[in-house]
Design goal:
Number of strands: 5
Radius of gyration: 23 Å
Largest sheet: 5 strands, mixed
Helix content: 55-70%
Oligomer: single chain
Strand order of the largest sheet: 1-5-2-4-3
């Protein structure tokens, strides 16, 4: 991009200004390919669909993600009628106009030397593409967006039927506050639990292709999933039994120390520019500073077996009180 930035942004500006919403023939071809692609890749993407489905009731952004990219997005795509391309394009034109009027953010990652030139190029791109600053207009609320979600359910635990020989189980429950000893202990336990009990009981015994549990600091919850699972409903029961088994048998100091080293390595490994840019942008959105990252590392180094077992007690209690679950499977 640094070497071809002028040409790249010039072409992008041209694309944004010259989208043809009258070309039904081209759109019909694209639509057919999209429907085919969604159907063929549903099994590969179902885990992502499941998590978006699980979280859509929690925020305005989460329900929008479900509509665009989750199970609702899949349902809408595969059920589109290629004979109605003209109607769809009229709708898309209105949507595109509203999106442009809502304003834009241009985010890029580069070195200091390139930045000086890129700043000027981006300013020209913003002008050529006729991008606007973000507006203060009130967006649709979560409740308004909920009306567009497919197969809604008022139940906390939801089962969605899919045409597949394998399924997916996802579950969430609250975690402790970010940058606390409790949070880091829960992070350590879920990391260890994923590589031991979940691997043994859900992958090796139950036959799932994957299973894991981790903390999402951005929205304050613990996530659990199984991937390409022949028995997703049974896996949910298995994970609860496995947690109780660890509570009974305990975790060794050696396991705790080994997991600390593993997490420390993941947190301090240098990233390529692309990943560094994505992570820094995400941290900006969620107000996570470098000082907080340093503090979490300091806490991590001092965790004990007692901290981890206390974290396990909190996890079990929260699952009993406030867990939410989505299972995608062929009924």
């Amino acid at each position: 991009l640094a070497e071809k930035m002028d040409v790249a942004f010039e072409k992008l500006a041209m694309i944004l200004k010259t989208i043809d919403f009258k070309d039904t023939e081209h759109f019909s071809t694209v639509l057919k390919a999209n429907i085919s692609n969604r159907k063929q890749n549903f099994v590969n993407s179902s885990l992502d669909y499941a998590f978006k489905r699980l979280n859509y009731k929690k925020s305005q952004n989460a329900v929008l993600q479900e509509i665009l990219w989750g199970f609702t997005g899949y349902e809408n795509a595969v059920n589109m009628d290629t004979e109605k391309c003209g109607e769809y394009l009229k709708c898309f034109e209105k949507m595109y106009t509203q999106i442009k009027e809502g304003g834009a953010i241009v985010h890029y990652t580069t070195d200091k030397k390139t930045s000086e030139k890129l700043d000027a190029v981006v300013q020209k791109f913003v002008k050529d593409a006729e991008l606007l600053p973000l507006t203060a207009e009130k967006p649709r609320t979560k409740e308004e967006l909920m009306a567009y979600v497919c197969q809604t359910s008022e139940e906390k635990n939801e089962y969605v039927n899919i045409d597949s020989q394998v399924g997916y189980a996802t579950m969430t429950f609250p975690c402790s506050k970010y940058v606390t000893r409790e949070f880091m202990a829960e992070d350590l336990f879920t990391t260890w639990f994923s590589g031991h009990a979940l691997w043994d009981k859900i992958r090796t015994v139950n036959g799932a292709y994957g299973a894991s549990m981790w903390l999402d600091a951005g929205i304050g919850q613990t996530d659990f999933y199984t991937y390409r699972d022949p028995r997703p409903d049974n896996s949910v029961k298995t994970v609860l039994e496995a947690l109780e088994e660890v509570k009974k048998n305990g975790i060794t100091e050696e396991d705790v120390n080994d997991t600390i080293l593993s997490i420390f390595g993941q947190m301090t490994t240098p990233m390529v520019a692309r990943d560094k840019g994505n992570n820094s942008f995400a941290r900006t959105l969620f107000a996570q500073t470098n000082d907080q990252m340093e503090e979490t590392i300091s806490i991590l180094k001092t965790l004990t077996v007692e901290d981890v077992m206390a974290a396990l007690d909190r996890i079990i209690e929260r699952i009993k009180e406030r867990n939410e679950m989505i299972v995608l499977q062929n009924n």
